[in-house]
Design brief:
The structure holds two protein chains of two kinds.
Chain A lengths: L6 H24 L10 E4 L4 E6 L2 E3 L2 E5 L2 E7 L8 E2 L14 E6 L3 E7 L2 E11 L4
Parallel strand pairs in A: 1-4, 2-5, 4-9
Antiparallel strand pairs in A: 2-3, 5-7, 6-8, 8-9
Chain B lengths: L7 H11 L3 E6 L2 E7 L3 H4 L6 E6 L14 H13 L8 E3 L9 H11 L6 E3 L13 H7 L9 E5 L2 E5 L20 H11 L8 E5 L17 H6 L7 E5 L7 E4 L2 E5 L27 H4 L1 E7 L7 E6 L3
Parallel strand pairs in B: 3-4, 4-5, 7-8, 8-9, 9-11
Antiparallel strand pairs in B: 1-2, 1-13, 3-12, 6-7, 10-11, 12-13
Classes of the chains: A alpha/beta, B alpha/beta.
């Protein structure tokens, strides 16, 4: 089997994506509660919090929790995925379908992460200080 | 498709053959048939030539459609190698031996592969360094006598072989940010490794992810491949063998031929033809073997470019 790249759909795809990015950045200005890619920001007040992995995406893409929260990722996809902190402070092993991974976020801050098997899959955990 | 050597007519021929168990070869600009699989002429090498076989992406541990048993299809691939009338000098495996970096998966793969009774040179896939310790298990098992995080080179029959590792240090992000990297340490090693070698030395470069950007939307490329290739441009024959994308795509750029390999486990969609690069689970069982395969690399002269002969696992 020899496969070729058909350039036509690719150009359309890029144009669509560029369009989406444009709209998203406008929305980001108007609606600060949206992230740059227009994903809903989910605040998890209660512990534990969960991120679902399916269709090569993290949902929600951005999750806001309070310090001390344990976040659990569950892979509901047919492909294995990983949860790797961009700064490499934590990483999961490959999660097979149905596997979970948990990490407790002690310190407030922003934790961008990605799937190191599919690096275009990105997400972020925002950790707010715990109420005094 | 940019700068590939296959014209439309040649491509259609290849696609026809792919379904009928005919091996084909690209030598220079035009594909040419070498006969039916199993035909002695197909795999017969002239005297003095070097022949080796590339297998890739065996993904032992995968258990979902379209292939519940990748160990069985790996066994078929190895049986095909064992049946070659001219036996290859050795095998190369271009990564993703395992699906989840588990010892049992590697044990199973090793058990099957060693039945070919050949030396095997491995480069890791990202699925082989997906343990929580980021590759420690792979390196303990397959990384003996390698440099850094598993890279190496060796010479065989006048051909210089380089195993590159581009499955560590992925950077997150869309498009170019999401590509694989080789990294400065390995690139510096590569530059020294090839310095001083005669430009007439044929080079074979093996790495899991493609060393040219096939489809950045899915991370199918290596961000710093250009630097690696800049050290190799002066050589008369450079053959780049990659895996990762579970399909055969070729590009020729000057003296450098790049070709990705079929998997022995399952196919992945052509770039951009599906929402995500996951397994093509809709492939019916009766069709699966058309998408799986092995590659014979045959140096017919001691100098110059090899013939690359892809054959499917269709019986």
């Amino acid at each position: 089997m020899l496969t070729t790249i058909n350039p036509a759909p690719r150009r359309r795809r890029i144009a669509l994506l560029l369009g989406a990015v444009g709209v998203a950045s406008l929305l980001a200005v108007v609606l600060p509660e949206l992230t740059a890619i227009g994903e809903e920001v989910v605040t998890a007040a209660a512990s534990p919090a969960t991120v679902q992995i399916d269709n090569f995406a993290f949902a929600p893409a951005t999750l806001t929790v309070t310090a001390g929260t344990t976040v659990t990722w569950k892979n509901d996809d047919d492909s294995p995925h990983r949860v790797t902190d961009k700064k490499r402070t934590f990483t999961s092993a490959a999660l097979d379908t149905g596997d979970t991974f948990s990490h407790t976020f002690a310190a407030p801050g922003e934790y961008p992460y990605f799937c190191s098997l599919h690096p275009y899959m990105v997400g972020k955990i925002v950790v707010k200080p715990a109420a005094p | 498709m940019t700068a590939t050597s296959v014209n439309r007519r040649g491509l259609l021929k290849c696609m026809t053959w792919a379904g009928t168990g005919v091996v084909w070869s690209l030598s220079g600009e035009m594909p040419r048939t070498l006969g039916l699989i199993g035909d002695a002429a197909a795999a017969e090498a002239p005297q003095g030539a070097l022949t080796f076989v590339q297998i890739s992406d065996s993904h032992i541990g995968f258990h979902l459609p379209p292939n519940a048993d990748p160990l069985a299809t790996l066994t078929e691939a190895i049986d095909k190698i064992k049946a070659m009338p001219t036996q290859p000098a050795f095998l190369v495996h271009t990564g993703d031996i395992s699906h989840l970096s588990k010892e049992q998966e590697w044990d199973d793969a090793d058990q099957v592969i060693k039945s070919a009774n050949k030396q095997v040179f491995y480069v890791p896939g990202e699925h082989d360094v997906a343990d929580a310790d980021n590759g420690k298990a792979y390196l303990a098992r397959y990384g003996k006598d390698t440099k850094g995080k598993g890279w190496y080179s060796f010479d065989m029959a006048g051909v210089h072989f380089i195993g590159l590792v581009n499955v560590f240090n992925f950077q997150p992000g869309f498009k170019s940010a999401g590509l694989a990297t080789i990294g400065d340490e390995q690139l510096e090693w590569l530059e020294k490794d090839v310095a001083g070698r005669s430009a007439s030395t044929p080079i074979v470069l093996m790495a899991h992810l493609p060393l040219w950007t096939i489809y950045p939307e899915w991370g199918w490329g290596t961000a710093d491949a250009g630097r690696a290739l800049s050290y190799l441009k002066r050589f008369g024959s450079v053959t780049v063998l990659n895996g990762h994308i579970h399909q055969i795509i070729q590009k020729v750029e000057g003296n450098i031929t790049f070709r990705t390999a079929a998997s022995t486990a399952y196919p992945q969609p052509a770039p951009g033809t599906a929402p995500a690069p996951g397994p093509m689970k809709e492939v019916p069982a009766a069709e699966l073997h058309k998408y799986l395969g092995i590659r014979t690399v045959n140096y017919v002269r001691s100098k110059g470019a090899p013939a690359l002969i892809d054959s499917t696992l269709v019986a």
